[in-house]
Amino acid sequence: MAAEAVVRRGSAGRRLAGLFQGRPRLQVGTLLAGPVGWLVIGYLGSLAVLLITAFWSVDALSGEVVQGFSLDNFETLVQEPVYRDVVGRTVGVAAAVTITDALLAFPIAFYMAKVASRRTTAILVVAILLPLWSSYLVKVLAWRTMLSNEGIVNWALEPFGLHGPGYGIVAVWLVMSYLWLPYMILPIYAGLERIPNSLISASEDLGAHPFTTFRRVILPLSFPAVVAGSIFTFSLTLGDYITPRLVSNDQFIGNVIFNNITNNQPFAAALAVVPIVVMIAYLLVARKLGAFEHV
Amino acid sequence: MRLSKGATWLLRFGVGLGLAFIYIPLLVVGIYAFNGSGTTQKWPPSGLTTKWFGEALENDAAREAFVTSLKAGLAATAIALLLGTLAALAVARHRFFGRETISFLVVLPIALPGIVTGVALSNTFTQVFGVSLGLFTVIVGHATFCIVVVYNNVVARLRRTSASFEEASADLGAHTWQTFRHITLPNMRTALAAGALLAFALSFDEIIVTTFTIGAGEETLPIWIFRNLFRPSQLPIVNVVALLVILISIVPVYLAHRLSREEGASVAGKGGRGVEVEATAVP
C-alpha cells in the first residue's frame, strides 16, 4: 500500500515535472511569480501608496486623513524654514560622512588589495566584514556611552586637557562615519583588487614616483568603486533617525518622519519622498560615473 | 606595488588605527556588560562583576523580546530563502525580458533608507489592507529586505557553476525536479546556508523597519534595548543584552563567510589572490 502510494506520488511529480520540460517560459514564469509578486505588489506597491498618501492631508479639526489631491504637504516642506534646515542638515551630514569614510577607507582598502600578504588580506576581510553586519543599535549605544560626560572619550582626552565633542551634530557625524565605514572599505577593496598589478608596474617602470602612480593610475581606476561605496554611506545616513536620537538633540529627516507617523501620516509620507528623490538623483549620477559595476 | 619602507609602515599604522576605530566601541560594550559600578556608566568601571548576566536572564521582558526576535528572524529567513532562491534560479539560468531589472528590484528595499521601507510598508498594512501591526507585519518587512542577501549568494554561486551539469542531467533523462534535487540543489547548498545565516543576522538586529511595522504589544530585542536604554536603572541589563546581540549577529556572519569562501575556492578552483567578498559583502 505504502509503496504504491509512493509510486503514485512519484508519477504525479513526474507528470508535473514533465509539464515544465522544454517549456522555458513556463519555468521562468513559475520561478519568478513568487519573488516578483512579493517585490512588485508588496514593495513597489507600498512605495506607490506612499507617494499617493503624500498628496493627502489631515483635517485640522478632526485629525482624520482626507484622501484628496493637495500639494499642502510639499508646500509646508519647502516653505517652512524648520524643514529646510532639517533637510539641509541631513544631506550635509550625509555628505560629510561620505567624505570622511572615503578618506578613512581608502588606505585600509589599498593596504588589503595591493600591499598585504594573502593571509593578512583574508584576516582583514573577516575583521571588516564581521562588524558590518552586526548590531547597528548596539554600536550606537556604545558611542552613546563612550561620548557621555563620564565616558571613555573624555577620560582618554583629559590628560591632554581636551574635551570630547559630547552629544550634538559632531557626535552624529562621528558615529555615522563609524557605522558605515565597512560599507565603504569593501567596495573600494574590491575595486582596487580589479586593477591589474601590471598597470602599476608599468607606471613604476616608466619612472613615475609612487605618488604619481597613485594619482594618475590607481585613483582614476578606483574612483567608480569609491562612488559605489558612497551610495551606501549616503543612503544609510539619509534614513537614520536612531543615531541622531541617541547622540544629539538635532532633528534629521528620519526624526521628523518618525514624529509625524502617528498623527500626520500624509506629511510623514511627503517627508519620506525627500530621501527617495535625493537617492534617485544620487544613483543616476553614480551610474554615470560607472559605479554600478562595483556595487 | 613597490612602496618605500616608510610608506608601508605609515599604511600599516593607518590600518591599525582603522581597526582600532572599528573594534574599540564593541570592546567597550563588552566591558560594560561586566560593569561593577552599578547603574553609573563612568569610565573606567570601579570593578567587574557577572551579576548582571543573572539579572538579564531573569528579566521576563528581555526574554520575551529575545523569543520574538528569534521567531521573526527564522520566519523572515525562511521566506527570503524561498523567494531569493527562486529569483536567483530564474536570473542565473534563464534569459528573459527584464532580467537586469530583477537585481535592481531585489536590491531596492535595502538600497533605499530603512525609514522609507518602514513607512511605506506600515502605510500599506494599515491604510490599504487594514491589517493591524504585529509580529506578522514585522516578518513581512524583514523578509522583504532579506531576499537580496540570499539572492546575491545564490546568484554568485550559480554563475560560477556551469549549467552544463544540469544539461547533462537532462540529457540523461532526468526530469526537471530530479535535476534540481540531485544537481542544482547540492551545488548551491552552502550558498543557501550562507545566505540564510546572513539573512538571520540582518533580521535579528534590525530596528528601523521593525519600529514601523511592529504592534504596540510586542517587541524584538533591539526594540527592547531601545525602549530601555533611556532608563538608568535598566542600563546594566541593557549592556548585557547588547553583548549578547553582538555575539548572536557576529557568529552567523563569520560562519557564512567561512561557508562561501571554502566553497568559492573549491568551485572556482582558480588561483589568484582574490579573497571572495562579492558574495557576502555589501548587499
Any overview of this molecule?
The complex is a heterodimer of chains A (295) and B (283). Chain A has 295 residues and is mainly α. Chain A has helices at 2-20, 24-53, 72-79, 81-115, 118-133, 136-147, 152-157, 169-193, 197-205, 210-239, 242-247, 253-260, 265-288; strands at 57-58, 65-66. The longest helix of chain A is centred in the first third of the chain and has 35 residues, at 81-115. The termini of chain A are far apart. With 283 residues, chain B is an all-alpha fold. Chain B has a domain at 64-234 and 252-268: MetI-like (MetI-like fold), CATH 1.10.3720. Chain B contains 11 helices and no strands.
Order of helices and strands of chain B: HHHHHHHHHHH
Q: Hey, which two chains have the biggest interface?
A: A-B, 108 and 94 residues
SS strand fraction of chain A: under 5%
Largest sheet of chain A: 2 strands, antiparallel
Write the layout of secondary structure elements.
The complex is a heterodimer of chains A (295) and B (283).
Chain A: H1 2-20, H2 24-53, E1 57-58, E2 65-66, H3 72-79, H4 81-115, H5 118-133, H6 136-147, H7 152-157, H8 169-193, H9 197-205, H10 210-239, H11 242-247, H12 253-260, H13 265-288
Antiparallel strand pairs in A: 1-2
Chain B: H1 5-32, H2 51-58, H3 60-93, H4 99-111, H5 114-129, H6 135-160, H7 164-171, H8 176-204, H9 208-213, H10 221-228, H11 235-268
Structure summary:
The complex is a heterodimer of chains A (295) and B (283). Chain A has 295 residues and is mainly α.
Overview features:
heterodimer, A: 295 residues, mainly alpha, MetI-like fold, 2 domains, two-stranded antiparallel sheet, 13 helices, disordered N terminus, B: 283 residues, 11 helices, 74% helix, globular
